[in-house]
Amino acid sequence: MRHFQPIARVPGDPILSLMDAYRADRNPAKLDLGVGVYKDAQGLTPIPRAVKLAEQRLLDSETSKSYIGGHGDALFGSLLSQLVLGADNPLLANRAAATQTPGGTGALRLAGEFIAQCLPGRSIWLSDPTWPIHESIFAAAGVRVGQYPYVGTDNRLNVEAMLAALSHVPQGDVVLLHACCHNPTGFDLSPRDWKRVLEVVKARELLPLIDFAYQGFGDGLAQDAFAVRLFAAELPEVLITSSCSKNFGLYRERTGALIVCAEQAEKLQDVRSQLAFIARNLWSTPPAHGAAVVATILADCNLRAAWSNELDSMRQRIAQLRTGLVSALQTHGLAERFAHLVVQRGMFSYTGLSALQVSRLRDEFSVYMVGSGRANMAGLDAERLDQLASAIARVCND
Ligand SMILES: Cc1ncc(COP(=O)(O)O)c(C=O)c1O
To answer: Measured in angstroms, how far is the CA atom of residue 108 from the centroid of ligand 1?
Structure first.
């Protein structure tokens, strides 16, 4: 008997295959707008200076590599909860707490397992479109997945359709919301839209699971937390998945948390006991290094200021690239058609380019982006915006 004989091959991640094609491309003018990591003007994904300094300190001060507990580093959990919910949030007294996870992905998977095991029968509702891994994470956890409309084929945010769909979601189901910098579209809800979503969530008694993977990349650390803090203040129960991958540049250190807000301190502890139990079966205890780096930065006012300034520069660079590209497109009479690029927030943009235009950009101009037309704006090169604008004009006007 050959045990492996019936095993078929699953197709690779399309973004990773795109990266392989990019690497193999010999055109020196090639441009990578595919993979979802921040890039600086040199095309590198930098380690923030505050991270390096914190790592140096840890190298000297660390005395043990013993396990950290099931909820992870307590100082990290508390400082990250403050960053997410606001340092003066009354929930932090005893009604909100973080369980450290391997990245935002780990937090989502932990939430998925929690829903499957502790809230059986509840479906989770995802925006259409969403980060493709959302669907596979919840499906893998055994949670039924539904969709609500978000951005239509006209490449516009459709809040009315979203609200209408959510108002028909079965009472008590879970709704996943992107706190800011919606991946893949870049279209975010306004504060007024969020209040309307909140009313539907209240009316249908839905449990919000807010994915917060880009805090600081939209409009600022506090501004990006608007929806998270609004929902946490107005609802008895909220789940938040927070990632330190992008804003701390800690991608490979797998640093994140699932933050639970509960109505009573006792119930919070009940939920947390379940999370520790589930995590025990998934990864036992989380990796320590990234969380120790984040805690070191957030606990030290100088490191924290340096980090937050660097994050501001990353955000400003993306915003400048967005406006720069739209002004370069103006020369080709395309500024209006691409005006949404400056409305969108975060690294990603649904450009509105068709699959055919995306493949022409790749084949004829070595510009790599995802087939859906999603572009990572941080991958743009400020010196070559005119060149890109001409390429876009060619594929749009031919
Ligand atoms: C919307 C969204 N959520 C969660 C994540 C997970 O991030 P990580 O697991 O790298 O922390 C990502 C990463 O790309 C994302 O785009």
So the answer is: 9
246 is catalytic: yes
129 CA to centre of ligand 1 in angstroms:
15
Q: Could you read off the pLDDT of 6-49 as tens digits, one per residue?
A: 999 988 888 888 889 999 999 999 999 998 899 999 989 999 99
Ligand 1 atom with least separation from CA of 105: 9
The predicted-structure confidence for 117-136, as pLDDT tens digits, reads as follows 999 999 999 999 999 999 99
CATH of span 67-299: 3.40.640.10
Helix-helix angle 301-330:289-299, to 10 degrees: 100
Catalytic: which of 39, 211, 224, 307?
211
Domain 14-47+314-397: which CATH number of 3.90.1150.10, 3.30.930.10, 3.30.360.10, 3.40.50.300: 3.90.1150.10
Q: For 240, how many CA atoms within 13 A lie in the half-sphere containing its CB? A: 33
Amino acid at residue number 302: N
Question: Alpha-carbon Rg of the chain, whole angstroms?
Answer: 21
Ligand 1 within 6 A of 104 CB?
yes
The residue among 395, 121, 381, 117 whose CA lies nearest residue 274 is 117
Helix boundaries (H) for 9-99: 14-24, 49-61, 74-85
CA 82 – CA 215 distance, rounded (Å): 13
